[in-house]
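Subject: Predicted fold for Putrescine aminotransferase, 451 residues

User T.R. writes:
Posting the sequence so we have a shared reference for the thread.
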Amino acid sequence: TILTPNSPTAELQRADAAHHMHPFTHGQGLNDRGARVITRAEGCWLNDSEGNRILDAMAGLWCVNIGYGRRELAQAAARQMEELPYYNTFFQTTHVPAINLAARIAELAPGDLNHVFFASSGSEANDTNLRLVRTYWAEKGQPERQWVISRWNAYHGSSVGSGSLGGMKGMHTQGGMPIPGIAHIDQPDWWSEGGDMTPEDFGRARAKQLEDKILELGPENVAAFIAEPVQGAGGVIVAPDTYWPEVQKIVDKYGILLIADEVICGFGRTGRWFGSETVGIRPDIMTIAKGLSSGYQPIGGSVLSDEVASVISGTEFNHGYTYSGHPVACAVALENLRILDEEGVVDRVASDTGPYLKERFESLTDHPLVGEAKIVGMMGSLALTPDKASRAAFASEAGTVGYITRERCFANNLIMRHVGDRMIISPPLVISREEIDVLIERAWQSLDEAH
Ligand code: PLP
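User M.O. replies:
I've generated the structure tokens; pasting them so everyone works from the same file.
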């Protein structure tokens, strides 16, 4: 039998648990309760199979920048499906949606980031980057430049390559990651790791770790440094202001490629088109995905500077995916970018709803559980603590306060996530002031219930 959104919830959940393996999910937890079945969505709101309306303060997985239910994107997909549902861009062929989308990304991307290598996801794009930076140096006659430096608690994807680039220790203990040739330094998380240092000194100290690592490995052996402008999945970690200028100086000093993973930060999330602009860095390569299509189609890519692209073009880069530059995904992404631009969505985040969300979100620090609220554009985190003054963490037995708060949010029809004892948000960029009020009210109530 084919089930429908109107099938009984219990039946949907039974079939789900019987046959569907969920990512990043402990199976037993799911079986006890069953997954919530999301059936429709409009704007910032999800509907579930039991008739609840849920405010999605995570924009799915940080991706539905434009909000749900935009018919223009559905129509762009339908048109493209009828005209040319698939063709590849290997072996001397191309097609109009890939041509237009690459050109549009080149226009929007800062500096001379003018060349796009398409993938279907952020993970694939970061795998591309790993091979690309090493190929770049080999082509430049420096094949010994193999090391890529990343940060602990970074998230760059789930494939073996991108998961190794990431610094999620829980992932590294399963299935043979990290692969060789990747080194990690500490993250610029002042709240949790800054001790007695000022944020400014701490930012400089964490940037200095990059230089130390480069010197330890030998600058002649290092290919690239990869980082998210604002760490997302690690808990929305916003680096102190001193961090990025130092990092830029260090990569410049040693001539190392800088890869900005913009999978979350890109396409307006931080109040500029790209997070690199917000934190003031000049990457040689950007990873993009998520907001590129607002999640309506799976698409990602690597955006290369003129210089990197010209070196790579000097050889055949033996790399590509069947769905690199998929025409339907490209057509949908192009329409998404048109709407983000023409409706002034990014500007509104910068000058209107973003500042309003910041003010309201920061008011949550009045709650006894909340030590710090950090927010950049429309990505934010609350650090929960038993003692604000010492920035203490909850003892491990009680270290589930974030989890409990998340569960209370879920029950209160608000999607927030927790990373340890941080509560995080990343709502659709089109969220209104009234919806922001609902978000804050429900978050406060959920914190109260968890307290
Ligand atoms: N890079 C960052 C910064 C991400 O947040 C993610 C996903 O959350 C990825 C890469 C991986 O992207 P995907 O899940 O599309 O493979």
